[in-house]
Amino acid sequence: MTLDAQEFIRRFLLHILPDGFMRVRHFGYLANRTKKQNLSRCRELLGLNPALPEVPKKSSQDLMLELTGIDLSRCPRCKQGTMRIVAELPRISPWNSS
Fold first, then answer.
1. Mean pLDDT on 63-86
2. d(CA 41, CA 37)
3. HEC states along the chain?
4. Arithmetic mean of pLDDT over the chain
């Protein structure tokens, strides 16, 4: 969509809250302090099991394969060979250069 500058700025400014206003996304039943208890209560009121379901831990390789169908253990060039880690380079932080 192409907009002239004035319309773009008008739409952009709709997302800025005036002084004294506060965003409401962290209030109510999604407030951090009581989120776990409130979500359990919401699930109970909806007739669901109040216990939050356990999310199975998956590796990034498994998630990538499940979501995109890309197997990270396969060679990206020939698609047949299996890649394996030979060595890992140490992480170098740009803020701790000495």
1. 85
2. 6
3. CCCCHHHHHHHHHCCCCCCCCCCCCCCHHHCHHHHHHHHHHHHHHCCCCCCCCCCCCCCHHHHHHHHHCCCCCECCCCCCCECCCCCCCCCCCHHHCC
4. 84
pLDDT tens-place string over residues 20-65: 887 776 667 777 788 888 888 888 999 988 887 788 888 888 889 9
Cβ atoms of 41 and 47 within 8 Å: the answer is: no
d(CA 24, CA 96): 38
CB 31 within 8 A of CB 23: no
* 8 A C-beta contact, residue 31 and residue 25: no
Residues in the chain: 98
User: Per-domain residue ranges for the chain?
Assistant: 5-45
pTM above 0.90, yes or no: no
Structure tokens at 6: 């004035």
